[in-house]
Specification:
Blueprint lengths: L1 H22 L29 H11 L34 E2 L5 E5 L5 H11 L11 H5 L16 E10 L2 E13 L10 E8 L10 H12 L7 E7 L3 E9 L3 H9 L9 H14 L6 E8 L10 H11 L5 E6 L7 H10 L4 E3 L3 H10 L1 H5 L1 E12 L4 E7 L19 E4 L3 E10 L25 E10 L7 E8 L12 H16 L10 H10 L8 H16 L2
Parallel strand pairs: 5-6, 5-8, 8-9, 9-10
Antiparallel strand pairs: 1-12, 2-11, 3-4, 4-14, 6-7, 11-13, 11-15, 12-14, 15-16
Length: about 550
């Protein structure tokens, strides 16, 4: 009898120790994690070795809802692990002030991505300022549409307009705005679309901000499609697979049913998914139509082809087949924003960050034509400043879109694309010769160019190159910028000019305000209110709210 009681006591002690090992903090102060949920990702539970079989059975019992008194009490449960922030952003070094006498030419590729603005909004809505490299000022400016002149016909796919006025944060300099507006099409005029939904269903997407929002977002898109369109669905987790063959766009019930069946789990074989998506897109290719992959993910690739360079190279090779790639980012904590933006650039597409269903509606409903239908590709901007008139300049934003001077005329160099109805805005801060706004010290031996009497009235010469879809030879637009274009005061400038300037100032303040002097968030608000205009969708009003949030979060 005594031996039996002793055996039962030893067995109970073993069960208790095994259960406590699962429920209590682990070694080195780290908390134990349930099998299959390590690092926020589904894992295969590995068998424990070197323990008695009874101890292993006790551990499995501890993982199930236990009835043993004491182990469901709050005081015995380990506190939840704090979410580890593993978001990744490309490093951005702001464009410096350049002396025209030394660097008279500035060249860059247009950018119609908007992801940075929505991502900054997400940071501020969570009650924290964004990390500096998450703030790409050109994407914040181009998040908004502007009332620029439209092209008179479709022979030239976009119209170019310019405006100059005193700079809001430095009255001794000028702000030069270059605006581009693509022609618009009616929804009934949109070509048939062959769309491949490439969806990340890995364990990292198991969050209400990710897969559930993704399903709702694509549900909005489906309502815009017709029988002429085709939809395929490719998913990837530990492996890639085709879950929906090309299906007419008006069969929304069938497509939505396939979407609703998706659940998150496993690792992330993004490279394999992209390969399969391109194969499916080629199979359903519509000649003369829209052929595009819509990649929806948090960008957390960790299986297979995970090299950023390898992924980008593969997509660059694939775009030659006329299949474009749009990336839609979801989620927080492990978001790889750098990958999302660069893959879209490589795939001749655009990048957007979906933080709310309202943003999904903006990208996939309100702006569907500009999201899907490209009207001009490889659009490059080059401006040559007249050193006899302009002493210094600084391009605001576009740091990862800069091109070499010789790239402008090289039709083999890739650049940004413009969709139907897109507006593109670029801002330069410039200092005239002899003004008080100069930031660079004079050279010892001087480098002042001799003025050319024939061009004394020109500040700069603007050139744009673009290709029509399906063509490999670029076309050229030339526009001289003269002193007569300068508006005497900021109050006399257009509402769009003032609002774009306010967004540019806001972005610079979020990045530290290196060039904005004593300009404040209150002044950003005042400037934005003066340029708010009609604000049909309320986007500019929301901007005012974000500036107010940033102002409050910046108080030390």
């Amino acid at each position: 009898m005594k031996k039996t009681l002793l055996y039962i006591s030893i067995l109970a002690l073993g069960l208790g120790l095994a259960a406590c090992q699962y429920l209590s903090p682990g070694q080195n102060g780290q908390k134990s994690t349930p099998a299959g949920q390590q690092n926020g990702r589904d894992q295969v539970a590995r068998p424990t070795t070197g323990r008695p079989k009874l101890a292993q059975e006790a551990r499995l019992r501890a993982m199930a809802p236990a009835k043993t008194a004491g182990y469901h009490m709050i005081g015995h449960m380990p506190p939840p692990m704090a979410a580890q922030d593993r978001e990744r952003y490309g490093q951005i070094d702001p464009n410096p002030v350049k002396a025209v006498a030394e660097h008279p030419v500035s060249t860059f590729s247009v950018d119609v991505d908007t992801g940075a603005y929505a991502n900054v909004r997400r940071f501020l809505s969570q009650g924290r300022l964004p990390v500096k490299d998450a703030v790409r000022i050109e994407e914040m400016i181009n998040y908004f549409s502007y009332n620029y002149p439209t092209p008179p016909n479709r022979k030239v796919p976009f119209a170019v307009s310019t405006e100059m006025a005193p700079c809001p944060w430095n009255p001794n300099t000028l702000l030069l705005r270059i605006g581009i507006k693509g022609y618009e099409i009616k929804r009934s005029e949109r070509p048939a679309a062959n769309l491949v939904f490439l969806l990340d269903v890995s364990g990292s997407m198991n969050s209400r901000h990710k897969l559930p929002l993704l399903k709702s977002a694509f549900g909005l898109l489906l309502k815009q499609l017709t029988a002429r369109d085709r939809v395929s669905i490719v998913v990837y987790a530990g492996a890639a697979g085709l879950i929906l063959e090309p299906t007419p766009g008006d069969q929304r019930g069938k497509i939505m049913a396939a979407l609703q069946k998706l659940s998150a789990g496993g690792s992330t074989a993004g490279g394999a998914g992209i390969k399969l998506a391109y194969a499916v897109a080629r199979q359903g290719f519509i000649k003369g139509g829209i052929n595009r992959i819509l990649l929806a993910t948090d960008g957390d690739f960790n299986v297979g082809m995970v090299s950023f360079r390898a992924l980008k190279d593969m997509i660059e090779r694939q775009r030659k087949d006329g299949i474009e790639l749009t990336t839609l980012g979801f989620g927080v904590g492990n978001y790889n924003e750098r990958l999302m933006e660069q893959l879209a650039d490589a795939g001749n597409g655009n990048y957007a960050y979906i933080d709310t269903l309202s943003e999904a509606n903006k990208v996939l409903v309100t702006e569907l034509n500009s999201t899907l239908f490209t009207i001009a590709k490889d659009v490059k901007v080059q401006i040559e400043f007249n050193p006899a008139v302009v002493a210094e300049y600084r391009l605001i934003g576009y740091e990862n879109r800069m091109l070499k001077r010789e790239d402008f005329a090289n039709d083999k160099v890739d650049a940004g694309d413009i969709g139907a109805g897109h507006t593109v805005t670029a801002l330069y801060e410039i200092s005239l010769v002899g003004s008080k706004g100069l930031k660079l010290p004079p050279l010892r031996y001087g480098s002042q160019a001799k003025p050319d009497p024939a061009k004394a009235g020109e500040l700069a010469f603007l050139k744009l190159r673009y290709k029509l879809p399906g063509q490999d030879k670029s076309k050229l637009i030339k526009i001289p910028l003269t002193k007569q274009m300068i508006t005497a005061s900021l109050d006399q400038s257009s509402e769009d000019f003032r609002f774009a300037a306010a967004v540019a100032a806001f972005g610079q303040l979020l990045r530290g305000g290196k060039y904005t002097g004593r300009f404040t968030y209150d002044q950003v608000l005042e400037l934005a209110r003066s340029g708010r205009g009609k604000d049909k969708f309320g986007y500019r009003g929301e901007f005012l709210r974000l500036v107010s949030l940033a102002r409050g979060l910046s108080v030390k």
